[in-house]
Design a protein that fits this description.
The complex is a heterodimer of chains A (70) and B (334).
Chain A: H1 2-21, H2 25-68
Chain B: H1 4-22, E1 28-33, E2 36-37, E3 40-49, E4 56-63, E5 68-77, E6 80-87, E7 97-100, E8 103-105, E9 110-111, H2 155-179, H3 182-213, H4 222-242, H5 247-271, H6 291-294, H7 299-333
Parallel strand pairs in B: 2-9
Antiparallel strand pairs in B: 1-3, 3-6, 4-5, 4-7, 5-6, 7-8
Chain lengths: 70, 334
């Protein structure tokens, strides 16, 4: 238990150091190139969301087709 | 041509998405170094974005509310300018504004050794060393936002589509209460389900944009919490429906709940965030200036309105598919 606690504390300090030293990968990818990557991620999320909806609708229609001709 | 509005929706989305991604940002100064100067000779380097400075020397100036210091500016390359100033003793205030030609950068320099002396210099803005050819139609370039201003055409239309679909839902709910028809009830729930898809997309895209501009995925902004609560209210609408067995009873109960849900949506998304007493990070809320203040020449609007209409039409199309599928489902179950 004490081992896990100290490991967790160590991880927290590592995290704090990483933040003060250099921008992390997230900030680099979101803030780089005039923040254009933020737009890329937003567009990707919207396309994925609509795509997921299409998949669910597809499955629903397949179930209906099965009901018509068993 | 009964499909005309679907073609219109796809066409508008195509136009708005391409224009939103391809329109250049207008030139702006994005960084000034150093951030602190003292009386005497000071060299200030300025970084521009989309500036395309032409080689040579031009004029630069430092400014506070009442005084201006003029200096020479040497163009290093298309985005870098090095300016040399002779800062006199006794500036009244910090020289917070840096200017090159017609571009300004606010909140830049902290001046040491303030006093009450000197007259204002008589230079800049005027001479134009920036090649503006090729930048006709451009979006505003604002610090913190930069390129992410394009998200206006993707994140915000999600909410417009969601609100439109919830509007369709509440209209069908009112019709249900009048007619007691299960057809109307089915349409109401289909619209709310598709509206929730757009609500989820709006929340997630908003979180990403917030991380890039406000520094956190979720902040205690009134509009964020209002939007999240609105989403939960509509989730509860679906849960409520699932808990009632009798179809006609369910239709009436859900219809009444849906009217309350829509009233709360209007309150949480439009009324509460606009109260000036409440702070909000969202543009145009809590007494903030909106994007309309940046958009003086209507360039954002010219793309934003087609995007909103396009996403609304796509949402209505999704609603129609959902409604037809559940109608078939109900008929086959009977």
């Amino acid at each position: 238990m004490r081992y896990i606690t100290s490991l967790a504390l160590l991880l927290f300090t590592l995290h704090a150091n990483a933040q003060s030293a250099a921008p992390n990968w997230l900030e680099e990818s979101l803030y780089g190139n005039g923040k254009i990557n933020t737009v890329v991620i937003v567009v990707a999320i919207i396309l994925l969301g609509i795509g997921l909806w299409m998949f669910r609708m597809d499955r629903k229609l397949s179930r209906l087709e099965k009901k018509i001709k068993p | 041509m009964k499909y005309w509005w679907k073609f219109l929706g796809i066409g508008l989305l195509l136009f708005a998405s391409i224009a939103a991604l391809r329109t250049p940002l207008s030139p702006a100064l994005v960084h000034v170094s150093p951030d602190r100067i003292a009386p005497g000779t000071a060299v200030v380097e300025v970084l521009g974005y989309n500036t395309n400075f032409q080689k040579g020397t031009t004029e630069g100036y430092l400014e506070n509310a009442s005084q201006r210091v003029c200096g020479s500016a040497e163009v290093i390359d298309a985005t870098h300018v090095r300016m040399t100033f002779d800062i006199p003793q006794g500036m009244k205030d910090h020289l917070t504004t840096v200017g090159v030609d017609q571009l300004r950068y606010d909140g830049a320099l902290f001046t040491e050794g303030l006093g009450s002396g000197i007259e204002s210099g008589s230079c800049g803005p005027g001479v134009n060393k920036i090649d503006m050819s090729g930048i006709g139609f451009a979006f505003p370039n604002r610090s913190i936002l930069y390129e992410s201003i394009r998200n206006l055409h993707f994140h915000v239309p999600m909410w417009f589509a969601m609100i439109f679909l919830m509007g369709i839902s509440v209209v069908y709910s009112i019709l249900t209460l009048g007619s007691n028809s299960l057809e109307h009830d089915r349409a109401a729930v289909s619209a709310a389900q598709v509206g929730l898809v757009f609500c989820a997309l709006g929340l997630i895209t908003g979180a990403v944009w917030a991380r890039a501009t406000w520094g956190a995925f979720w902040t205690n902004d009134v509009k964020l919490n209002g939007a999240a609560v609105t989403g939960l209210i509509y989730l509860a609408y679906l849960v409520l429906r699932g808990s009632v067995q009798d179809a006609h009873k369910r239709a009436r109960l859900a219809g009444i709940y849906n009217i309350f849900a829509f009233v709360l949506l209007v309150l949480f998304l439009f009324v509460v965030p606009r109260l000036n007493a409440i702070d909000s990070l969202h543009p145009g809320n809590g007494g903030n200036g909106g994007f309309s203040d940046l958009d003086l020449d209507n360039r954002l609007r010219a793309i934003f309105y087609p995007a909103v209409l396009g996403w609304i039409l796509l949402g209505v199309w999704m609603f129609s598919l959902k409604n037809r599928a559940s109608k078939l489902n109900d008929q086959l179950d009977r």
